[in-house]
């Protein structure tokens, strides 16, 4: 049976089609999910795509966190459903308390869009198993509220437990503490990051590389062998 991966669309989501395409290129069946629908359509994993859901009013992701679909996503994620939050999706995961910390305005107060080099810090999550720890990859980055922050206790816990999934290389683009670009929950099924792997899945788009495709092949392999 083909693995089914759902991609949630909120009002203001920009990268849902890119994520659906990435899912298909990786070999899974892409399934569109609407923010007002609690039914996840029996998908095996969920992607919260990038964009500016609800116009980033109040805080980025703060309103989307209360969309009907998130009630089911939160419950299922706590039960083990693989969930990937990309950019705005990462913001939604922190607002939902599926991941710790918060996202603030970039320290330079400007929107940034560039190819970003990352180092894989944890290659044992549901979304990173096709990478190697220490591997350097390049994927596009585009955000204005991308500065990851948490108190020292949380940061120390993330470091000690190996829950920093990705770290920025060659310059911190937004002031994120400890150069953190992405994190995972303790179980490894929920991952959030600010850069956009869905824009680096085929040579003709994004960075011209396919460094982001392994996010999607990783979760397919994880589900097939589960």
In whole angstroms, the N-to-C terminal distance is 13 Å
How much helical structure, as a percent, in the residues?
10-25%
Q: Under the CATH scheme, which class?
A: Alpha Beta
Structural class call reads: alpha/beta
Q: Predict the CATH topology.
A: Rossmann fold
Give the helices and strands as they follow along the chain.
EHEEHEHEEEEHEEEH
Count of separate structural domains: 1
Q: Can you say what the CATH homologous superfamily is?
A: Class I glutamine amidotransferase (GATase) domain
Task: Record the strand order, biggest sheet.
Answer: 2-1-3-4-11-10-9-6-7
Radius of gyration (Å)? 16 Å
Strand content: 25-35%
Write the CATH architecture name. 3-Layer(aba) Sandwich
Mean pLDDT, nearest integer?
A: 95
- How many H/I helical runs? 5
Shape category: globular
- Low-confidence runs: none
Largest sheet: 9 strands, mixed
Care to count the β-strands?
11
């Amino acid at each position: 049976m083909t693995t089914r991966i759902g991609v949630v669309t909120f009002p203001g989501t920009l990268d849902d089609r890119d994520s659906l395409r990435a899912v298909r290129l990786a070999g899974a069946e892409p399934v569109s999910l609407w923010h007002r629908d609690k039914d996840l359509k029996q998908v095996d994993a969920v992607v919260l795509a990038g964009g500016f859901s609800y116009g980033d009013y109040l805080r980025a992701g703060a309103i989307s966190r209360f969309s009907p679909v998130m009630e089911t996503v939160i419950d299922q994620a706590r039960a083990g459903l693989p969930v990937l939050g990309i950019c705005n999706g990462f913001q939604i995961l922190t607002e939902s308390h599926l991941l710790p910390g918060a996202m603030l305005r970039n320290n330079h107060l400007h929107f940034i869009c560039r190819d970003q080099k990352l180092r894989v810090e944890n290659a044992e999550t549901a979304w990173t198993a096709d990478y190697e720890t220490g591997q350097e990859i390049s994927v596009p980055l585009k955000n204005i509220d991308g500065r990851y922050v948490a108190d020292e206790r949380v940061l120390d816990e993330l470091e000690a437990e190996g829950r920093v999934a990705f770290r920025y290389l060659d310059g911190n683009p937004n002031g994120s503490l400890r150069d953190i670009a992405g994190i995972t929950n303790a179980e490894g099924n929920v991952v959030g990051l600010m850069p956009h792997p869905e824009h680096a899945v085929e040579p003709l788009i994004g960075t011209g590389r396919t460094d982001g495709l392994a996010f999607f092949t990783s979760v397919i392999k994880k589900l097939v062998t589960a």
